[in-house]
Description:
This protein is α/β, with parallel strands linked by helices and 358 residues long. It has helices spanning 66-78, 97-109, 143-146, 167-170, 193-196, 215-220, 223-234, 241-250, 265-269, 272-277, 279-287, 312-319, 334-350, 353-357; strands at 10-12, 30-33, 36-39, 54-60, 84-91, 113-118, 152-156, 160-162, 179-181, 210-214, 254-256, 263-264, 291-293.
Amino acid sequence: MRIGVTRPMGTWRSCALGPAEPGEQANGALLWDRGRLRMLDPVPASSRPESAGTVHVACAADGAYVPHCAAMLHSLLDQRGGRQLAVHYLHGPAFETPWRDGLARMMEGGSAAITFHEVPDEAVAGLPVQRFFTPAMWYRIMAPELLGGLDRILYLDADIIAVDSVAPLWDVDLDGAIVAAVTNVPEPHHANRPRQLGLPESQEYFNSGVLLMDLAAMRREDSATALCDYARRAGTELIWPDQDAYNVVLGARRRVLHPRWNCMNSIMEFEASVAVFGTQAVTEARTNPALRHFEGPGPNKPWHYMCDRALREEYLIHRRQTPWPRVRFEDATIANRARRLVRRLRAIAAEPVADRAA
C-alpha cells in the first residue's frame, strides 16, 4: 500500500543525548504468557532492532486532543529509561502550525527529537468513524509506509501517561509476532465481541492503545492494505473500528504483554480483570503500572471534571508542563460541581475522626 504523503512535513531535532554506555541494557520486560507471568531475558545490545539508544514512539492526534497528546509525550521525556527518544507524530492536513511549533519546542527542551508526518485525507477515505473516534485513529495503520526507515515502532494513544520506563517494553523480542499488545478487559455487555468478529475461542481480544509493531514484517505482508480492506468491508459493523480491525487481521500474530504495559481503567476498576490476567498480574499492574491508559468516554478521561480514576493527577502534572498548561475541564457544569462537592463531603465523612483532625 502506497500513501501519497509529504513526509516528513517538518523535522526538529535537539542536541542529541549521549550514546548508551557500552553493554548497557534493560533488566528485562514482564510478559503475560499463556496464563502465567514471566520475565523475558533482555535483548542483547548487538541484536536489538533500531538504535540501542533510541526509543521510537508514534502517536496521532488532531484538534482538541493535541494538548492531551502533549501531556503523554511529556511523560515520555521522564520515562525513557535514559535512552534517546524519537517521536513520530502522525496528523491530518488540517494540523495547525502553532500545534506543531509548540510540540517541537517542548520536545526540543527535553532533548528529544520529533518528526511530523502528514496523512492525506484520501488515505483514510471510506474508513469507518464514529462519534468518539475520528479519522486520526486510523493513522497508526499507515505507520509501516510512513516510517519506511524503521523496523519497529511503539505506538501510544493520546490518553496515556507513562509512569515508569518504557525502555524494557521497547526491548521486547517479538519472537516472530507482528505486534505485541495487552489483552482487553471488556464490559459485560461486550464480552462476546471476539466471537462476533469471528475470532476463534483461543484468540483473545486486545486493546490497540499500546502497540509494539514489527514494521518490517507489516511492510512485507502489506498489512496496511489488509487492515484498510477489512475495515472498509466491515464498515459500521465495527464498534471500536481500528481496534476491531487489528484484532481480526493481526490478532493471530500477537505477542501478549503483561497488563502493566497498558494499565487501562478496566484493569484498575473491573474485577473481571482478574479472570483475564490472574490475581498476581492484576495486583502488579495496579500497584506498579508502566503506561496508565485512561480509555473510555466522558468521566474516564483525566481532563473530565468528574474523573476520579487512579493516577489522574499524573496527567495534570505533565499537562501543566506542556505549551497548553491550563486545562479546561469537560462538563464543568453547575450540576457536576455540586455532585463533586457532595462526593468530597461524603469522603470526608467516611474518614476516621483522627485522620480529619490531622
